[in-house]
Amino acid sequence: MSSEKKIDQTILCYHCGDECKDDSIKIEDKLFCCNGCKTVFEILDQNKLCNYYNLDQTPGISPNLNFGNRFDYLDDTSTIQKLLDFQNEEISKVTFRIPSMHCSSCIWLLENLYKLNNSVTHSQVDFLKKELNVTFNHNDLSLKELVKLVTSIGYEPQILLESVEEKNINKASQTLHLRIGIAGFCFLNVMLFTFPEYLGIDSIDSFLKNFFITLNLVLSLPVVFYSGWEYFGSALKGLRKKIINIDFPISLGILALFGRSIFEVATQSGSGYFDSLTGLVFFLLIGKFLQEKTYSYLNFERNYKSFFPLSVTIKLDNSEKSIPINKLMIGNRIVVRKNEIIPADSILLNGDGRIDYSFVTGESKPVDKVSGEFVYAGGRQLSSAIELEVIKEVSQSYLTQLWNNEIFNNPDKSSESYFTNFSNIVSKYFTFAILLIASISAALWFQSSITTAFNVFTAVLIVACPCALALSTPFTLGNAMRILGINKLYLRNTSVIEDLAKVDSVVFDKTGTITQLGKSDLIFTGEVLNSLQQKMIKSLVRNSTHPLSIKIYNSLESEELFPVTKFDEIPGLGITGVVYGNQLKVGSKVFIDGSSEENKSGTNIYVSVNENLLGYFSITNSYRKGIGEVIKEIGTKYNLSLLSGDNEGEKHNLLKFFNDEKNLHFDQSPEDKLEFIKSNQKAGKKVLMIGDGLNDAGALRQSDVGIAVTEDISSFSPACDAILDASNLKLLPKFLNYSQSAIKIIYISFVISFFYNLFGLTFAIQGMLSPIIAAILMPLSSISVVLFATLSTNFIGRKLKLINKGGD
To answer: pLDDT tens-digit profile of 281-293?
Structure first.
């Protein structure tokens, strides 16, 4: 790479590409515009990170290294707590907004912060949101030092203690409105001053004619250099990185019109094309405005209120009540059982906290908490039930952030959309093809008419803009995701729709998935339980979120609860704990005394106190309404299997739904379920796993698509790809059909976009399409594809009765 880059004798900085005043600041043959850029280069060079300069030419940002006391406020403990997302004895997590982030080099450097300081354990960039998430050891690196480190390499965080981001968004929107206003005002006045020419009236007074032409020129300047500057700025940034982006042909078209108009005015050979020029920019901005409005209407931002059917148990006097998580308020006392997620920052009041923060940090080592200690949202309680007092509101995006954490994605699953990658690649090469077509067309017309050549060149560049191609995938999948959300199927991201469309095998869990425990009968066989025994059993099962535990808890009438110590839950077997010195066990016969199950006529849950078997609860399974029709309908198109941790007592009933006995698998441990999924995938099958999110976490994570079915409990699991409200399990066949239809709509959108560009190019090459008409057609093509995607997904949704005829 040449270190000294000269354009018209201008020296450019090796780091940031800005103009250097002289060649006094340099390292060997590398020149820098300031000591800040030089310092950043030295930091990168010392840490062997100069590959940064191989990703893009002059990718850096000139930093301000004069910190002074700018960051002293980060020494304040209360301020630090407001900024941090999470903190324990060693690790802290923080999210910074980095407005100066602009290219792939920025991402690479910011995600390699650990090489600059080994106290940074992990850093991840969300480029679309311009956010940087950093995990660091606060014992070795303070938040203040971390901010200085990030600032020293040219990416000063925008630290917002209040909600300032909305103001910034509004400011950006106001700028677009101002650009449109100026372009519209100038366009209308240029048309007014050009009106005599439209009517073919020759001006007698040459002075007036030249005066109006001059006014048109003056009015076009703010349109080109202010209203249209965003296109030029974007194109220039791309060129500096040797990339021709989507704004480059648009900028070229504007410059072609402007240059041709200036030439005619300067040589007095014509009045120019200022009406077409100003109209072009005006309609381009109008199209951009309409696209943004349409996109904001189809808002795909997910938050806990609309995408998580979670509830939380709050304590009122001596009773417990389940409420929606969005009703949770500061000051509420909540009960969190084993394996439940803590929904909000809280103070531990009662019980022994054993908190697993791996959802937040990725580290599986649990943290012990005692009464009075602070507990962060996102932790999972591993021991017996605890009581906490909420001290912060539930974050609208925090659970979504946990759900999207890469730690809980199957490494074999690709988070990138095939269609998104395809459209991005096509858009890239499409731009080069259009440039070539525009140049050849203009050259052919140049011999007969220079004016037509300019018009053809400009019209081709504008009308063939691949915006429609790029918009078809996000709008189709985004709107489909919204419609599925209306029907209480909440997806992790839009790529899950693509995976659902590829599924060829469906695996069901039994208990809590196809069975409805809330309506099943519960009978206790054995010794008559006295009041004390009932209280102890209820106190023990209260700590578990398993559907059978909840069934037993609700069946016992005792209101008084005892503290439980040494609580443990063995998935697929049972639970154990100590109540006032008494060892209780609730679970399978094998778990209780090591012997095999004798009664195989139904689901039995045995109970023992101090190794003394008291009896067992018999549960008659009640299958969900319409589940038989659902399974039979799915069975006509997909390979079906059932995995159950219970015995074969329900085999006769299940054969009514599953025709082949070979598809029924009983006495399955969580490990068995996981291995079953793996074996199917090795056979080349695309597997959809449907479970309750508890004992099925491993299988849900391993499957190509994992759907957790939930009722009125907090069974949120980051291992799943989707959460389905149990009441809508009957809609599963429609969800699968709808996903396949959404993929077909994307293909049709691609075809429409292709034929539109082919149609527009045909007229543009023949000189039958003026630049201003092309400017109107370009946003219309994008909007038409968006409308097609939206209307088509809505139409299919109504056809499948996923949308009411009266609306959503």
So the answer is: 887 787 677 656 6
